[in-house]
C-alpha cells in the first residue's frame, strides 16, 4: 500500500493533495493504523467512470477526485475519441466548468492534455452553467463535451460529465460508450505517468457561444402578458449571470435577488448542502420573499441544470411551499402538450412526453389525454433526453428539458423561462400557479408524490436492503396490499438492466426503490392518485395513501 501511495505521489501535480498524501504515508510508515486505513480507503478501489462520468470528494488517491485522476480521464477520453473518429476526420471537444473548488484547474488540465493528444479542444471562456456546455456541444458541432461540476453535491465534491456529439446530439454518454471510455482511462493509468502525458495549447471560445445560448433560450418565451414579482437564488452557483441575460432579453422584469447566495462561492457558506431539495437550503429565499411579498421563488442549483420553484402558502410556517419536482414537471408537461396542440392546429398531434421511471405517472396521464406518445426511461437525463420525438422531458429530481431542439440535457434556466411565461399568462387571467395545480387535479385527477432518502456511511447497507426486499418481498406496505413487484435488475419492458424495484399496490399506488446514482443514498419514491370526488376530496385521499405508504416503507427498510 505504501508503494502504491508513493507511486501516486510521484505523479501528483497538486501541492494540496501532495501534502495530504505525504502526511498519510509518513503516518502509516510510523505504524499509525488510522493513516494506513485512510490509504486503503483511498487506493483499494478506483473512482469508477460510468454513465454519470466521475464524481467524488476532492482529495488524494485513486478513489477520489484530483488532478491525477482527471488527467488520466482526459487522456483516456482523448484516446477513445481518436479511436472512434470517422476516417479522415479529427475529433473535437468543448470543455466547461462551474465555480466549485478545482473546477477551472480540472478543466484546463483536461484541455491541455486532450489537445496534446491530437483532439481539437475548445475551452468555454469562463465559469458557466452546465446547460451552456450541453448547448455548446451541438452549437459547435463538437465530437464530445466535458463539464467539470458536481452539480448539487456537498461542497468538497467535484465531478466530470461527458457528452457526445454526432448521432448522440449532445446527450450524456450511455453504455457501451462509458465502458469504452473507462477502459481507455484504465489503460492510461496502467501505462503512463501524468507528467509524461503530452500537453498542447488549446482554443478558448468567444462569448458568441454564450450569446447563442441566451438567444435560443430567450426565444422560448413570448412577450410577458404580466410581470411577476419573483425572488431568485443561485445557491452560490453560476446560474445568475446567464439567467439575468436571458430574462432581460425575454422581456421579464429582473427578480429580487438573494444577495448572500448570488455570486459563485465554492465554500457554499449559507447552506449545508447546496441542493434546493435539502431542508433549509431555500430558507434565505423564503425570508427575502416575505420581505417583498413575492408571488414566486425560483432557484437554480450550483451548476444551474436544475430548477426549484416555491409559491405562497399560508399553511406553511415560512409562508412559502416548494413545489416538488413532480408538480413542476407535470405542469410544464401540460404546458408543452397544450402548446403542441395549438401549433398542430387541425393536423395530427405528434411528439413524445418523457420522464424517468421514478417520476410521477401524471405525465403519462397528460400524454394520454392529448394523444401524444409517452416514454418512461431509466433515471438520468442521459436516458430522458434520448426519447424519440421528444417535446418535453423531466425527472423528479428538479430536472426539466423544455427545449430539446437546442439542449439535450436538463436545463434550469430554460425551465425558469418556461415557468415564468406560464405564471405571467396565469396572472394576466387573474390566476396563480396554485390555481393551475388545482386545474390539473380537476382535469387529470390528483397525483401526490413523496420520497424517502436514506443517507448511509457504508454502501453495503444499501445492497443489504435491496437484497432483503428481493428475497422476502412484502405482501403489505402499511395496510395496503401489494399487487405486483417488478425487478429491473435484468432489464424490463425494453429498458436496460438497473438496480430498481417497482412495487404496485392494489389501490393503484406505486413505490419505487433504488440506490442513488450520484450519492451514498437509498431512495424510495411513492406515488398515489385519486380522481374521485371534489378537488379537495381527491387531495385528501391521495395524501392519506401517501402517508400510509411512507410509514410502511420506513418500517420495511429500517
From TrEMBL:
It comes from Cryobacterium roopkundense. Residues 47-186, 213-310, 325-440 form the Alpha-D-phosphohexomutase alpha/beta/alpha domain. Keywords: Isomerase, Magnesium, Metal-binding, Phosphoprotein. GO terms for biological process: carbohydrate metabolic process; purine ribonucleoside salvage. Its cofactor is Mg(2+). Belongs to the phosphohexose mutase family. This is Phosphomannomutase. The keyword Magnesium applies.
